[in-house]
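Section 5: illustrative case.
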């Protein structure tokens, strides 16, 4: 078992140099609601997704919506 590092002057520098970025909870709920609204997935299924995959689903759904907005009102009319 490795020995614990003694806290000295240099340990402060070590801990200050690390940045911990926290993803806002409001943003997670926004993404989950967006996916649930369009894909009707359960809360657990959405929250089990890795962060990057959840963002990818949001981008894909957004792209589909953009394409549909630019499509003709009735695609069967020629």
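Designed sequence:
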């Amino acid at each position: 078992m490795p020995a614990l590092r003694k806290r000295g002057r240099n340990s402060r520098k070590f801990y200050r140099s690390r940045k911990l970025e926290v993803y806002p909870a409001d943003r997670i709920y926004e993404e989950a609601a967006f996916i649930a609204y369009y894909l009707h997935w359960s809360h657990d299924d959405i929250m089990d997704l890795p962060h990057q995959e959840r963002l990818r689903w949001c981008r894909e759904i957004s792209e589909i919506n953009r394409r549909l907005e630019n499509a003709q009102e009735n695609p069967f009319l020629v």
